[in-house]
Design goal:
Two copies of one chain form a homodimer. By secondary structure, chain A is an alpha/beta fold. The first copy, chain A, contains 16 helices and 16 strands. In chain A, strand 1 and strand 2 form a beta hairpin. Chain A is globular, with a radius of gyration of 21 Å. At the A-B interface, helix 14 and helix 15 of A face helix 14 and helix 15 of B.
C-alpha cells in the first residue's frame, strides 16, 4: 500500500533485512520513522513529562487510552479543548486504543470493591461496564469506540476487539477471533472523520495458524470501500510464556500484509522489541519504560540499574555514560539519583522516565539504521548480548 | 560594605526609594540581583524541578536545608560529590540554613511517634536531637553547623540561632537573643572556607526595640577580624499575627546595617514580599510557591487559582494569560491542568511549580525595576490592589 487509505495517511517500506523492515508512516500530525516506539500517555499525559521532553526522546507518536479519557474528562471534554492534541499540547502523531482492554481488566477489577456481579458484561453488542472511578455505567460497542475515538481525535484509531487470556484453549481463542472479525466489519462501517486512520486487530493467542488466518481475513476486509490502514497484533504479553510469544511472532508477523504497518500492542522489554522487529513488526507501545522509571528502575544498553541500591551510594557516574538523554548528559550521578529516590523526590521519576524513553527511542532508531544499512542481524545479536552481559 | 568580607563575595546597593532598595549581591557562583527570592531545595532538589527549570524562573540563588542533607545523604556524602553544586547540578548561588530550626521542629515532631522525651535537647552547647528518619542521635552546635555547611559547600552559610515561638514573652525572647549572640561569636570564630560567606541572624520576635538592638550588636560583631557578610531576620512567620510582622519589619528592617544584605527567612506570600521589600529587605526564601503548587494552587498577579475547582472544567485559558512561564506559554488550559490534577498526574505539580516560581521571580524583578525607576510606591500599591481584586 503506497496510496493512503485515509486522508493524510500513508506507509512506505524503505528497507528490509529478512523480515525486519524500516518504513515511513505518514500521519496528519507527523512523519513517523519505523520501527517506532509509542510512549504511553494514558490520561492525556506521558506520566511525569511534558510534550517537549517526550519529543526529545525521539518519539513522534504517543498512545492515549480511550477507556481513561472517556471516563475522565470525557470524550466530549477532550473534543471541546481541540481534541487530545489541543488538550495535551502534543503536536506530533497520536494513536488511541479502543478502550475494550481496560474496560475489561479495570472494570473487572472493581468487582471485589463494589461487590455486585457482573460489572463487565461482554456480548455480541460490546462491553457494558462500570467505571473504576465512580461506578457509573458505560458501554463500548465497535461503533461507539469509533465515535468516542473520533471525539478524542488521534491520528490513528483502534477497532474494538476481544482479547482472551494468555493461555486460553483453542475454542475460546477461536470464538474471540470470530467476534473480533465481526466487530472489525462494524468498526469499518461506522462513520469516522476522513483524516483518522483505523487499524484492525489480529487475535489468536499463541496459535500461529489461527493468527495467520485472522491476519489474512482482516487484510482482505473491505466495507463500503474502506479497509484497515494498519494491522495490529493484540493479545500478546497477557500471561503466556515469553518464548511462546517469540515463537508465534516469528511464525506469523511477516505474513501480515506487508503493505500496511504492523503494530504489536502493549509489548514490551528491549528484548521483546528486538525479537518483534526481527519478526517484521513496525510499531510498539508499552508502559514499561515509564512505569519502571517510577519504580526507580533505569533500563540501559547494559541491563537494569535499580537506583535505590546501596552500591551506588558513592557512585559519581551517570546511569549510562554512553547515553545522550537529559538525565545522563545533565551530569546527575547515580549517588544523587539514589538520594532523590530514597528522599521521595519526584524529580528523579522524571529523570528516569526521560532516560528510559530515550533508551527506547535509541533502541528503535538504531534498529532502523541497522536495517537500512543491512547490518541488522549482527546489530540485534550484539545489542542483546550487551543487555545480557550487564555493566 | 563594598569591599568583600569573604572571598568572591560582595554587596552593592544601586538604588533606593524610601527604605526599599535594589542591589547586587556577588557570590562565587552568581551575581544575584536583589530583591531576590530563593526557591527552596530542601533535600538538594527544588521539588519536582530540574536546575534548568529553576533558573528559567529567574532565580539565581536557591536554599538547601542543612538538617535534611546532614541526615540524608550526610554532609560527607554531599562533599564527596563535589558539594551541593556538583551533587544537585545547580550552577548558580546557594545558601544553606544552619539546620537548627528543623532540628527543633522536626526533631520535636518525632516526640509523639517514638514516645520518649526529650528528643530535642537545647542548651548552651547547641541542639542534641534524634533524626526524624531513623531516630539516630545528632548534635548541632554553632561550630558544628559551620563545619557541616562547609562540607555541603553553599556560597552562603547561616549561623546557628535560637528561634522562639511567635508569641513568646519578652524574657523568653531576650534569652533567645542573648544566646543567639553568643552563638554568633562562636560561629564567626569557627574555621570556614574562605569562599563561603556567613550571615548572622537577628531574633527578637515582634519586639522592635529588641530586634534593633540585636541588629546593631550583630552588625558590630568582629571575631578574629571576621564579620558577618549579611544579616538575616529570623523568627518571623512562626505563629505571630501577620500585621504585627509587618509593623515590626517597618519599624526595624531599615536599621539593619545598610552595607550588608538583609535576608528575611522563611517568608512568605507575595504580599509579605512586597511589604518586606518596602521595609528594606533584600532576600527571601519560602516553600510557599512550590508547596502550594503541589497542593494544586497557582499563585498569580490576580490572586490564587485552585486548579481542581469545577469552574475550570471547560476553561481554555492558561492560568495567567500575562505570564511568560513554560506552563502559561505552553498553552496548557485550566481545563487540562484540572484534569491532570484530578487524575493524579505529577506533571501538573511541575507545571504549577514552574508557574508559581516564575511569578515570584517576576514579583521581585519588577520590584527591582520599580525601585530603580523610582516608581516603587505606586508599583507596590498597584500590585497589591491587583492581587486583592482577583481576576
Amino acid at each position: 500500500m503506497t496510496a493512503p487509505r485515509t486522508e493524510g495517511f500513508g506507509f512506505r517500506v524503505v528497507a528490509t533485512v529478512g523480515y525486519a523492515r524500516a518504513a515511513v508512516l505518514t500521519t496528519p500530525h507527523a512523519e513517523v520513522l519505523t520501527p517506532t516506539f509509542m510512549p504511553v500517555g494514558t490520561q492525556g499525559c506521558v506520566k511525569g513529562l511534558t510534550p517537549d521532553e517526550v519529543a526529545e526522546t525521539g518519539a513522534r507518536i504517543v498512545l492515549g487510552n480511550t477507556y481513561h479519557l472517556m471516563l475522565r474528562p470525557g470524550a466530549e471534554g477532550v473534543a471541546e479543548q481541540g481534541g487530545l492534541h489541543g488538550f495535551s499540547r502534543w503536536p506530533h502523531a497520536m494513536l488511541t486504543d479502543s478502550g475494550g482492554f481496560q474496560a475489561f481488566s479495570l472494570g473487572a477489577s472493581t468487582l471485589g470493591k463494589v461487590g455486585k456481579a457482573p460489572l463487565v458484561k461482554l456480548d455480541e453488542t460490546g462491553f457494558t461496564f462500570k467505571s473504576h472511578l465512580d461506578g457509573s455505567r458505560h458501554m463500548l460497542s465497535p461503533e461507539e469506540a469509533v465515535r468516542i475515538q473520533a471525539l478524542i481525535g488521534a491520528d490513528i484509531q483502534m477497532q474494538l476487539d476481544v482479547c482472551p487470556p494468555g493461555e486460553s484453549s483453542r475454542p475460546v481463542v477461536e470464538e474471540a477471533v470470530a467476534r473480533t472479525s465481526r466487530w472489525a466489519k462494524r468498526a469499518l462501517a461506522a462513520p469516522r472523520p476522513r483524516q483518522q486512520a483505523l487499524f484492525g486487530i489480529i487475535q489468536g493467542s499463541c496459535y500461529a495458524d489461527v493468527r495467520r488466518a485472522h491476519a489474512d481475513e482482516l487484510a482482505s476486509l473491505e466495507v463500503d470501500g474502506k479497509t484497515f490502514d494498519g494491522l495490529a497484533l493484540g493479545g500478546f504479553s497477557v500471561g503466556e510464556a515469553i518464548p511462546k510469544m517469540y515463537e508465534t511472532l516469528h511464525a506469523m508477523a511477516h505474513t501480515v500484509d506487508p503493505e500496511r504497518p504492523r503494530y504489536l500492542m502493549g509489548v514490551g522489554t528491549p528484548r521483546d522489541l528486538l525479537e518483534a522487529i526481527d519478526a517484521g513488526v513496525d510499531m510498539f507501545d508499552c508502559v514499561l519504560p515509564t512505569r519502571n522509571a517510577r519504580n526507580g528502575q533505569a533500563l540501559t544498553r547494559f541491563g537494569r540499574v535499580v537506583v535505590k541500591q546501596a552500591q551506588w551510594k558513592h557512585d559519581k557516574r551517570p546511569i549510562d555514560p554512553e547515553c545522550g538523554c537529559a538525565c545522563c548528559l545533565g551530569g546527575y550521578s547515580r549517588a544523587y539519583l539514589r538520594h532523590l529516590y530514597l528522599a521521595g523526590e519526584m524529580t528523579v521519576l522524571r529523570l528516569l522516565s526521560v532516560h528510559n524513553l530515550h533508551w527506547y527511542g535509541e533502541l528503535v532508531t538504531s534498529a532502523r539504521e541497522a536495517i537500512r544499512g543491512g547490518t541488522w542481524p549482527a546489530h540485534k545479536s550484539a545489542t542483546l548480548a550487551r543487555i545480557d552481559a550487564g555493566e
